Amino acid sequence: MTDRNPDTRTNGTASRATPGRSASIGRDILMLVVFIAISFAVAAIGSIGTAGNVDGWYATAEKAPWNPPNVLFGPVWTVLYLVMSVAAWLVWRRRHSVDTRPALTAYVVQIVLNSIWTPVFFGLYPAMGPAALWIALAIIVLLDIAVLVTMIRFWPIRKASAVMLIPYWAWVLFATTLNAALAVLNS
């Protein structure tokens, strides 16, 4: 008679695999939370950078005719940050089968550039005037490139992750046009 209890077959290895698998799932969930927390920390930095400035100098600045209403930015960025986090997490989950370091390094570079842009664009304008808009434009152009590099690095590891970044890249390219227009119109 064979023992059908999965916990006692193969010298009990099945029962030992279960806690390891639970730990792996727990680690995966923790890392997803970490990726999301990093993205929302960047969003928080952006909120601090915009505080008082959206209704201040930005409200009276000349803007591009295609500039969307301010109320649109928060929801769009919220969705983009969530999708970015999941995309990076999916790449991270492949770390045991491929070298994900270059891809995740590219991701970190773009998230750092993202975190710098808002405080420079909104926060420095009162002190520096139009020069802040031009500095911000240089940063966002670097961000455009960094997001593209991240997508290229993600592609061979997990194509879905690269595709998930396309809306983010499109939005950053759109934001680049808004930044450029503001810099030109307000100089």
Automatic annotation (TrEMBL):
InterPro entries: TspO/MBR-related_sf, TspO_MBR. Gene3D superfamilies: TspO/MBR protein. It is a multi-pass membrane protein. It comes from the Bacteria. GO terms for biological process: tetrapyrrole metabolic process. It is found in: Membrane. The keyword Membrane applies. Pfam families: TspO_MBR (PF03073). CDD domains: TSPO_MBR. Its main location: membrane. One of its GO terms (cellular component) is membrane. The chain crosses the membrane at residues 29-51, 71-92, 104-125, 131-154, 166-185. Keywords: Membrane, Transmembrane, Transmembrane helix. Residues 1-20 are annotated as: Disordered. Coiled coil: none annotated. The keyword Transmembrane helix applies. Belongs to the TspO/BZRP family. This is TspO and MBR related proteins. It comes from Okibacterium fritillariae.
